[in-house]
Every structure is written in structure tokens, then in C-alpha cells.
């Protein structure tokens, strides 16, 4: 398609200024990517400085676009046809899947847009790239479809004769650039011909009668006498044609600008100090001059309401609105105390759903009774903070002053959700406002809260408990509709956002147990601070679960308490995005910003969020822009760092006063009624303070704690019947459907597993694990395993999910176990997680909290990567029971072992987990204490050497009357080691987990009193020692395996020590001396040695690697040398 006046196919329009809705980095201070609802792609336009234009003037800005085209843009006309069909790479330019299209398409697109701008000064919108075509998706199914396709063809054709034809009167509005608008008009016309402009009515009627598109519409005579330009340059429209249509289209674009950009200038900051989006420039496309309108002459012009122009304002009595009224309505809807971000949503129905609820003459209108409820809830919120501050002025409480409207908003959110069918809500929040939420939302008794202020909170005698603003609570409370809801506020540490994945995991478990997997009956609510929401990586990890199989919870409602500061850090230092909530756009969640001093607006958007979650089962964010009346805590002085902000805060009336003044002014309530309500709030708080002295412990809550503390809960056998193992063996080795094609090599492996079970010997690690899972399932327990690559196993060891080699269908053998008699089989869930440790481990921890008859396992890809989740390990797993009485039976499965794979694939950091164990190395337990050692510990650590012990330790998690976290270190090399095998007799009824395996002895071994060295070890190093001892023909060294590292099996160790009275005692490990179990076990071994007659006073010798900073060497050669060195240390007596 040559440009007239040039003998080369080049683009002379590089100096064209950006037009409507097309701007580059300098065009607007905002740089967010606002995506078009109807556009599936967009293109680079010469001279538009990295801007992209798309259909109906909806702009997408991409800072990644090149400032110059990536495709060559100068071609000779000598090979016109070849060049026209040459495929051009448009992948940097298109947001669709299309990566290439013909050169003619690109050039035609650019030419059409630029000429359209030059001729009409209209919005230029690049047609969409769809399957190497610029035509938009076919949305119409009538005669109009063919006609519009013809018109699109005219707009994008490359034939000179077509382009040089005389202009058609319809070219001004019927072209591919305006297809989105045309289709909207057509839809409305089909419903009601009178709802569109008369020109459209004539045009569509002509098409319906079969007229050609160029003849379907004729403008008035005064508009058709436009001469053809000199030189035959093509014209896509005639100036002045369809003027009313053009104005109508501009108004549509103006309304669209409010929908897209209105939130940037919404009145969100109660202090009026800055814009919530950190911008200072008004978006130019929201000014009338941008569209050629004049405030003096056009304000009173009337425009038809309809598609794109406030259609819900249209009534029988009001079919048109003045431009002034349209602007006022848009300002009220999009630029008032609510700012809406939703046009980035890819689903048109979702966008329309929001528009239908906010683009109303009156988006909300609360009754007198509803206003009373909002006022009462605001009073309770305000009075709580005032009362606590007066009684405990020097206590840290992290009050909600400045953000009190959270309480009426949050309660409205809960009430609306309960009305939609929700029965259980799990809440996670930081310290800010936590006590207020506990009192007024969860309804924890006031006397219990004041008891904690007095320092009388119940804590165990060994030093448990936590500060009052970290504690959780579980209550069932009624709602105004008469329904009841179970509220669970999850306990949290001061590590901001750490509770997020825990809340989602607990919500998912509630949905599994209470709702049979449905997401309708349980939901999660997460409260965030603005700085943490933008800054903490776990927020993104957690939001990434929203649409994953086995992790999605049907939508989480996020409430951001945006007090516009992070301790002492200003927002401009705390985030690189306009809003603190911009991360939510990555998962296509709508974001509702709201001024926190407008209690009714906060209530409305919270109800809107509840309705969104109920309708679409997706996340939604409510950004409550407020302030923090005091410092980070009540004893802090914030004016040191934010003097201007705190001057404004000092003059800012409380939210309660603003709302009561509003209600009194409008006549809803009197001053006397208001004062009476506030007195009731203070009296209620005072009554709670008086009752705290007589507060009695909730024995229903502590009964289990007392039983656990006073009674000895005996361990039960964990073996299973041989018939049960055979049944599981048959299922995992060949129970898939007849037409299911398993990979040939894998089928052979699985058949061999079934064979080992049937023969009763040579059972390997993965088979033992399958037997543990399967037997628990047959007993009716739920088993859930997650982590990166767990379905197959990182080391190709598990193969819990089979894949048909032809159809790629999945089959999970353990999900297809047949029940024993009438007893139901428990559900089995095994699922690959996202590449996340912090979020995934937190999720599984939350899942494990819901039901005791549940085995939840999280497995790391390599144990080395578990430290990405160190916060969950430190703050929840190892200390949750001590701080919050939060018990979990969660299993962490961590690959560990030095196999020469370097410093990042060798160590699960055993030493760090052992350091977190809370036993005393210098106190030898009494016999009674030793019997209850598992009840009293904070967690258990095992490093097994046999598959049977692994089988038992997993089953032990369920077959006892308490729950403790279990950390399993497993050797990668033992998965297939020929010596690491077990027999079914080690797993039959009457068998247990063995915490210490003594030297089994061998032919030729000397008498016990002649043993010179007694080596204790754990894990895979045992087999290294065993093989080297045999290789060197050593018969006077005994090797004992400590299978359970913590709690230490003291009495078993003493018994093993007494077996060899004349030996020295050594601990051997493959880890460095500053790693592994040595530093933990050495003082405990010596403690045990002091209980014997022959070893008292001795020191434990060490064999292992020297201190390392990087865990392990990256050299295979050095690795082998180090192995030889510590073997020499251990075996040379």
C-alpha cells in the first residue's frame, strides 16, 4: 500500500503528535497499563513515542515497547507483491498471541490510523491483530456482520484502486478503527431503533434491506460536496460528515476516560495532602479541550444516553443529558470519595457488572435503620480506642484511630457475605487495629481483652504466651439477618503479611471438610497495611494461589488499611507503583479505593466487594485511604519525621464527628440521639473493665491443654495388616484403567513395587511412603501432599500421579483405593505447588490446623530451599503452640545429603531446626518425663535410615492423641540404595517407629567389651561407614543410628552406651562441624554418658567435615577427598 507522493513504502509521518488517548511516557504522569476491554491486540504507531492505541480509544501503555519499530520500514516498490506479503515480527507490538503478520497489514494499519487523525482529528485506534488479520473479532451474527466485514476490508485493503476510489459518506464512522463503537450501536439498535442517533437508524435499516455499505447511509446534501484531494490521496472520511456522531463518540471517550482514569483524581486522602496515587498531574484526556469542546459553548449541549454514555441513567423521562450533567455524574461516580480500578479486567462481563453497580444516579442510598447501624458500629470503634487509651495510656495497642471506618465496613462485608451463604470466615491481619477488630468484629469479650492489658493472660509455666495484639480468637456470632457465622482470627507474629498464606490454607481446609470442596461456605479476609502490601513478597506468593488447582479458595477479600505511611517511611520511598495495591492487577482483581473518612462510602465498597466475591469467586481489594492519628505505637513521636502530616492530623476531626455532623445536617438524627449512642459505647467498655477481675478461664478451651500437661498419652502401634499392604500394592502397581497407557519404563518400576510388597522384602523408600499414605486413607483419614514437583517427586521417586502417554490424562492410584467393608476411604490430595516456599509452606500450615484426622505434608524441592520459608518455620511451626496454643501435625519433608552436588543441593540445614528445639541439654529426663517427651516437645526431627521407620513416623502423626510438627530429613541417595530396604514384617501389627537402631552385629565382630569405638550417626552417612568398615575388615567398631534427632531418645542412648563399656564415644556426620547434628547432640550425648558407670566424664569425639561457610564444596574431587578424610577420622582408632 504505497503512500501517495512517495516512490518508496516509507512512513513520512514520524512527527505526528499523539492524538486522543495516545500518549507516551511524557503524556501522562501515570504509567499503569490500562487495558482495553474489547481489544485483543495493539500496534506501534510511527511518531507516537512508544504509545499504543487500541479500539474505541482505549489506551494501553507499555513502557517495554521500543521507541523505534523493530521491523524494517523502508521497502522498494519494485517487488511490491512480495513485500506486501512478507511476514513481519510484531511480537513486541502485540498483546495477542500473534507474532507475525503481513507487511501490508502493518502498513495499512499505520496509514489508516494516521490519515484518520489528520483528516478528522478523531481518535485513532489501531485495529486488532487476529490470526494475521487486522479485523476485530466477529461479534455480530446478522447481515450486518458481512457488511461490516466488507467495510473493514475497505479500511485495511492494500489495493491502490480500492484506496483511490472516491470517498464514501460512511467512511467517517464505518471503518475498522471504529468497529467496537459500531457494534455497540448495532446492539442497541437491534433492541430499540429509537435508542440510537437517526443517522445510525438509517444506516442499519439500509443494511438490513441488503443495500451495499457505501449506499446504506446518505448524509444531508450540504455535507457531500467535498472535492477529492489533489494527487488522489486517499480519504477515509470527509471533514464535517456525521458531526453529531463524532461528538457522540467523543462523549463516549470522555466517559471512558473517567472509567479508566477517574481514580487518579478521586478525593481519597482525608487529609488532602497528596493524591493517593502519588501523582500530581491531571490526566489530560479528562479535560474537555482534549476533545475540542468549549466549556462556554458546549456545556449545555445535550447528548443521547446509551452505550458508553451512562446507559443506566436512561429512563423514559430522561433520554438525554447535558454535557455539564454528564461531567457532574462522572465526577460523582469516579472522582468522589471512591476511586475504581476495574478496566484492566480481561472479562467484559466483569467490567459491566461493576459498571452496573456504580454508574447509577445514586449508587447507594441507605435507609434510616441502615444509617443507624453504620453509626453504631462507628461509635463502638471510636469508643473502644478512646476508652482503652484513657485506662492504659502508656500501653502499646497499635490503635485504629484515623481508620475507625474499617469496623463498619468490615462488619458490612461479613454480613453481606453471610447472606450470600458463607458460614465460616478466616481473618488474617497485622497488629494495627487488631484489638478493635477482636472486640467489635469477632466479639471477643471485653473483659478478656482488658485482662490481657492487666497482664493476667493465661500462659503456661514454661514461658509461653504472646503480646495481646498478636493473639487470635475463634467465635460464633449472629448477624443482623439472624444467621450465624464462625469467625476465626488467625494468630500472627509481627512479621507483616506472614499470616496471609496461613489464612488461605485454613480457608481451603474448611472448604474441604465443611463444604465438600465448595468455596461458597468458607472465605478468607486479609487485612493489610499499605507499606507491607506493596513491599512484602509473600503477598504476591499468596495472591498467586488464587486460581491454582487445590489452592484456590474462591476469592479472598483484601482490606488495605492505607494510613499513607510505613512506620516513618513515606509512600514515595516505600513503593515504585502509583498505588500500594497495584500488585493486585497482576491477578486481574478489581481495586476499590475509598476515603476512610466517609463511613457510608467505606460500607458501600465493602458490600460491593462481598458481592463481587460471591458472583465471581475471585479476589478483590478495598483500599481504605485513611491516616494514623498517633505514631507507629502510642508511645512514639511521629512529628520527628512527618511534621506536615501530623500538623494536618492534629486539625482533622475524627471520622465519627464527620459522620454524625453529616447525619445531623441531613436531619437523620439529632445531637441528643448521637450523644446517647456514644454514652452507651463508653458504658459497655466500662462494664467490660469491671468484669475482668472476675474472669474465669475457658476450661472448654484449656481442657486438652491440661490433659496434655498432666496425663501420659501412650503411643499406639503403627503397623498394619499384611492384607492391607497387599491391597495397596495391587493398587499402586497396576490398578489403573485397562486403556490407560503408562510410560513403559515407569510401568516396569511400578510393577516391581507391587512385587516387593507381595514378596514381603526389598521395600524401598517410595513404596513405604505409599503404604503409609494408603493405609491412612483406608482408615478414613485425609492425606494432602504438596510442594514443587511432588506428584512425580524431584528425584523421580514417587510417581503418585500417572500420565497417559497418548492422551495426557491423569490417574492417581491412591485416590482409587477400594474401601474395607463399609468404612469410607479418606480423600487423597497430591498437588504440585507454585514455585514458592514461604507461601506454600504457610498455606499447608494453615490447612493442617483445621482437623486432627489429617496428614498434611509439604515437601521442598531440595532441603536447601526451605530457608525461603524461614519465617513460617521460626514464627509458626516451632513456636506456634507455645505462643498461641496453636497445634499442628504438619510434616515437612526435606531432601538432605552430601552427594557432591554443591552448596545449594546438599543441606536442609539440620542444625538450624535443631537449634529451634526447646529441650534442655543439661537436664536428664526422669522416667516419667521420658514417657511424655513427645507431648512436651515443640517439634520432632527425624533422619531415618530405613523405609520402615519412615513408614511408621508418618503413621505416628495420626495415631496418637496430640499433634506436633514433624521435620523429616530424607536422603536422596537412600531412595534407591541397595542396602536401604525393609521387609513387611517391620511394618506389620505390633511394630513401632524405632528412635534409635543399635549395632546389629555381624559375623566376626569382637565381644562387646572389646569394642574400641562406638560411633553414633544419623542418616545416609551410616551406609558410608558401614561399607567402609566392611571394606577395611574392621571388627572392633560399633555403629549406632540415632533415627530421631529430637526429642533425644535418652534412655535408648544410655542402653546403647552401656553395651560397650570400654569404647570411646564418637559422633560422625558428613556435614561440617558448624552444621549437621553434632553441636546439638554432643552435649546431650555427654549428658547421657554421665548416667553410665563407664562413660561418665568422657567427651564425645567428632568425625566430619571442617567448618564451612557455604555448606558444601562445589568440586566433586574435593568432595571425595573430604569423605575419605572423615572416614579416616572415624575408623582409625
Q: Can you walk me through this structure?
A:
By secondary structure, the protein is of the alpha/beta class. It folds into five domains: 8-223 and 237-244, no CATH class; 246-358, no CATH class; 368-701, Thiamin diphosphate (ThDP)-binding fold, Pyr/PP domains (Rossmann fold, 3-Layer(aba) Sandwich), CATH 3.40.50.970; 722-987, Rossmann fold (3-Layer(aba) Sandwich); 997-1131, Rossmann fold (3-Layer(aba) Sandwich), CATH 3.40.50.11610. The chain has 37 helices and 31 strands. It has an eight-stranded mixed sheet, sandwiched between helices. The protein has a seven-stranded mixed sheet with strand order 21-18-22-23-25-24-29, with helices on both faces. Helix 11 (368-391) crosses helix 22 (671-691) and helix 27 runs parallel beside helix 28. It is elongated. The chain starts with 7 loop residues before the first strand and ends with a helix. 47% of the residues are buried. Mean pLDDT is 82; it is low at 1-81, 88-99, 110-167, 221-241, 459-463 and 695-703.
Q: Any idea what the shape is? A: elongated
β-strand amount: 5-15%
For the biggest sheet, the summary is: 8 strands, mixed
Number of E-state strands:
31
Strand neighbour order, sheet with most strands: 10-16-17-15-14-11-13-12
* CATH domain fold name of the largest domain: Rossmann fold
| Tally of separate domains | 5
Please report the first level of CATH classification, the CATH class of the largest domain: Alpha Beta
Q: How many DSSP helices? A: 37
**Stretches where pLDDT falls below 50 for ≥5 residues?**
1-81, 88-99, 110-167, 221-241, 459-463, 695-703
